[in-house]
Amino acid sequence: MSDDVRRDNATYLFEREKSRTFFHCEGWWTGFFTILAALKARTGNPLKLPVYSVCSHNYFTRTGEDLDLGFATTANTATNVRWNKVFAPEEFRDTARMPQQDIDVSGLMPDIVVRDITTKRVVLIEVKTIGSSAKQNMQPYETIETKLRNLSWNAKLFYLVSAGHEPDSDCGLFREYKSRVLLWEDVFEAVADSPLANVFEESLAPYRRCLTSVSCPSCT
């Protein structure tokens, strides 16, 4: 990402005190996100986040799609759970039944799964904060999404990153896979009108200023 895009974004919050490695721990932020989604759904103000793609200049560009997590509850949301626990055994057997040349997904642990069995809707979110690439499990997660769709599930995979996401090489992968990207800066925007804003010792406002300039100037 160019320096102007990186200014005042969530990456600076995640790295502001590198000696406090627990502060930008992905597990902490994953739990925080799921609590926010469930809380906002419960209070009738669902979490709705714009979806981005990555353009040829490595900028995040809005697609016009939104992720609406109004169906998220504490009962249907799981974090870091093995894939074979996400669905009933018979459903999992179908999901894991792949040709020999395909990637084995049985041991994967998605960061966030929001699943509605009644409507057969499932949202998968891979969470990234700082210093961790999305490359390792990108192909397996894409495989899961495809398999679920083949089984008549409305399945969508998202990557939750900062506008200053590192490493930069991930942007090329997001573009190659036509990945749906969510930004932490939009999450911070949603936090502002929730009780969870009081969790932080400082305002999150400075870390979402980049939202006004995140789009690629060459593509707009």
Question: What is the alpha-carbon Rg in Å?
Answer: 17 Å
* N-end to C-end Cα span: 17 Å
SSE order in H/E notation?
Answer: HHHEEEHHEEHEHEH
| Low-pLDDT stretches | 1-7
Molecular shape:
globular
How confident overall, as mean pLDDT? Answer: 83
Q: Output the structural class.
A: alpha/beta
Number of helices: 8
Secondary structure: helix percent: 25-40%
Provide the domain count: 1
Number of strands: 7
Beta-strand portion reads 15-25%
Q: How would a crystallographer describe the biggest sheet?
A: 5 strands, mixed
Major sheet: order of its strands? Answer: 3-4-5-6-7
Can you characterise this structure?
With 220 residues, the protein is an alpha/beta fold. It has one domain (3-203). The protein has helices at 3-6, 10-15, 26-42, 83-86, 89-96, 138-150, 169-176, 184-191, and strands at residues 48-54, 60-68, 77-79, 112-116, 121-127, 154-161, 180-183. The strands form 2 sheets. A 5-stranded mixed β-sheet has the order 3-4-5-6-7, sandwiched between helices. The chain has a two-stranded antiparallel sheet with strand order 1-2. The longest helix has 17 residues, at 26-42. It is globular. It starts with a helix and ends in a 29-residue tail after the last helix. Residues 1-7 have low confidence and may be disordered.
